[in-house]
């Protein structure tokens, strides 16, 4: 039996807001990942089943390996279809904000969302949520936002309104945000939820193949290049670092999602506690930073201290702006030095 995580007061308020709405807009963060898309489409399927007009809008393009989801082709990309997106936002009487804790994570999409007079619900599992929604359902100890969306749906009225497609979406979100249930996945409730999703008839093996065995040849060439040419190992610090510049990405015909999960791979090296990955943005003068760790190393604290970011204990990220990759690497090395005692 699933334990009660979300408060009864929050569930009652969410139920009231869901019942009173007609036009729902569901939004998530820039460079949406598996949990962002999975939770958004899972919520979309639920709203459609309840007879609501629902629309999913994300700030920009998301990885190709998530396009297999049933309603993925209906997602509106704000950076490409602003007028259309604003029309839906203007008509909305409820906005559901998923997998983000502050408006800035939506970048330009944050402007029409925060200006909208529609009621807003945030469902998220990141630390320190900002209070910009009428109802905030925030539980950082949850494995994923997809887990929380399932809990909300289940608590409101059971899983009868959860379709098979919605179950597939939520499974994908939970799976990707836990590295195939290899971290942040020790809560027994996770496996109760998986059992309920399986009862909807989902084929988890097929979904895993769609997510993890669905890359291009160029992606494998890029992976080999990272491991053979780019990976720096710091044995005394039990840490690794690799970087990719805009030119290197172009050389391997990079498309969004091609390096998904690669930051986890160095953690397979015996004794490694921390993996750092830095990638130049193809569109703006910024460098994305991803951090993964094991045990009690605080990747989120390092991200906040050095990379303008944050996240979870073992999975975090950030950004560096208007600097060269060489300068970014120097910041990374300063971060490793600052945390050397913990790493050693």
Question: Helical content, roughly?
Answer: 40-55%
Strand order of the largest sheet: 3-2-1-4-5-6
The oligomerization state is single chain
- Uncertain ranges: none
Task: Provide the number of structural domains.
Answer: 2
| Secondary-structure content class | alpha/beta
The CATH architecture name of the largest domain reads: Alpha-Beta Complex
In summary, what is this structure?
With 344 residues, the protein is α/β, with parallel strands linked by helices. Helices cover 40% and strands 18% of the residues.
Task: Describe the protein's architecture and organization.
The chain has 344 residues and is of the alpha/beta class. The chain is built from 13 helices and twelve strands. It folds into two domains: 205 residues, Alpha-Beta Complex (inorganic pyrophosphatase (n-terminal core)), CATH 3.90.1640; 127 residues, Diaminopimelate Epimerase, Chain A, domain 1, CATH 3.10.310.30. 40% of the residues lie in helices and 18% in strands. A six-stranded parallel beta sheet has the order 3-2-1-4-5-6, sandwiched between helices. It has a six-stranded mixed beta sheet with strand order 7-8-9-10-12-11. Helix 2 packs parallel to helix 5 and helix 6 crosses helix 8.
